């Protein structure tokens, strides 16, 4: 190798500007870190793009920047999150994800050991999901112009024939389901930041949902109308988006929304409403009413849908409100979040 | 609209953390800025992914982060650059680019007027290239944790049947061409940063090269072996990469490498070697020798290839050296760049 003279010190070295310069130092970083971990033939060809065969049909593409702070958190890290976040956005069209691309923006001074750990975690998540990172890019910015590492991932996938899932397809009468307990990710991050001890550990739910989605699509290929992962802004925001896009109202039942006791307790301490707290391994599904039980059973049979619940119904509403029937029998409007209670949660 | 109450002040407003929060402020930013400028039906559906039809065949995907400083420079801005940079990487496989995805990482405090101008420029570049931005993502980081705006774009395209262009396909005897004068982009940026006045204005060559590539592919579909855009690290780095990937040597003739007189003069003042200075609208082509004249004529007939030149030859060399015959008749090795002379040039 022409650049074997430059050895990357993955134990005590740091990212410097030359790692983004296109020269030997960058080639070394790519070889010794990215290609080592991601380890696939497309990436190994070292082209500025990856070329692969696709069948004729509908392709889904999604991109997501990840700027979470801290980089390592209970239940995950920015690397695994960058895989899960984008795969989930691809899967929310009903698509089977195929490949990932990754763009790294590194801050000068980042410990190479941290980057190594992040990329290893990212590679493990990509491998577990069966979606290799086949192309990428690395840039370095000066100290104080970034924050360790930002990762923007893009995923492509194939939408099965006959599947038509989109945020504007909800209609009055449809059922609303959620795949599990809400608020885990945001609370895990906030607890980490605030250095809170809750006696019991809350971990992020960061997970790739495309396997669950594939089972759901197989069970009711034409009856699923909308899928959305309630990340930033939480369940409340996802429901408001879907109501807005479809031009409908949604009514949910507070008693049916799964929230872990320790998440609820932590939210009280932190002054958060769990409905607005981010999730990274959950989905909202809106389906035709007569498919709801089938889908609920399918979800219950998948490890990531064990706590799935039918939480409400789509209604006609010219205001496109999301309303919640409370535990006390009343109804309140679940509004869009106004400000930002949890910056850099993903 | 449920979020019409929030008005974005594009004249004197600034990005704040709520614009990345997933709530009303973010929805407003997406509506009033991104959807307004990018203006296409896929984006307007406001899903977290875009779904489109593709023919069976080979898909090319490339991703590129853009962190250039300053955001606005002679001949372009980060918005147009983020379109050109990624389209070019897709096109260097011989592919016809179809669609773009864009991930924005905004710094709190960025003037919305600047963002508006950048997104407008990006949309104009995407429209001119016929490659709409169909999906995207926006994140906001706190003041001092970013630098205005970083844009990571991802492009997908279709590789025509029979075309096989990659960095590892150069063979001894092949010809080496460059599509035009080198060093313009890097010198324009550096001159802007250093506030230098050169009497004559040097502007970035930032441009989308897929039209030029399409003409070249049509002229010699199976004879083009490698294409690469010499961005970071310049022509010297691109040639070294290709030599390394293909396991060959390359010999170029200094007299045949087009460099504008004012770029050469500026490089002398700035202490730069133009061979290592970034380009954003040029390509290196390695082709079978008997196709070189045909391709050169094709390039000369395209506005972005008017100054194209056959600059050298691929040779057998176990060291994979790039060598240059100098104007004085000698030969010197054109090595990989060691450090980083122009940080954040793209």
Q: Provide the helix percentage of chain A.
A: 25-40%
CATH fold title of the largest domain in chain A: Phosphoribosyl-aminoimidazole Synthetase, Chain A, domain 2
What is the mean predicted local confidence, pLDDT of chain A?
Answer: 94
How much strand content do the residues of chain A show? Answer: 15-25%
Structural class of chain A: alpha+beta
Number of helices of chain A: 9
Largest interface, by Cβ-Cβ below 8 angstroms: which chains and how many residues each?
A: A-B, 93 and 93 residues
CATH superfamily of the largest domain in chain A: PurM-like C-terminal domain
CATH classification, class level of the largest domain in chain A: Alpha Beta
Tertiary shape of chain A:
globular
**Radius of gyration of chain A, in angstroms, nearest whole number:** 21 Å
How many beta-strand elements of chain A?
14
Which CATH architecture of the largest domain in chain A?
A: Alpha-Beta Complex
What does the largest sheet of chain A look like?
7 strands, mixed
Number of individual domains of chain A: 2
- Assembly category: homodimer
| Strand line-up of the largest beta sheet of chain A | 9-11-8-12-10-13-14
Distance between the termini of chain A: 38 Å
> pLDDT below 50 for ≥5 consecutive residues: which ranges of chain A?
1-5
The helix/strand order of chain A is HHEEEEHEHEEEHHEHEHEHEEE
InterPro entries (chains A, B): HypE, PurM-like_C_dom, PurM-like_C_sf, PurM-like_N, PurM-like_N_sf
Family (chains A, B): Belongs to the HypE family.
Domain PurM-like N-terminal (chains A, B): 47-159
Protein name (chains A, B): Hydrogenase expression/formation protein HypE
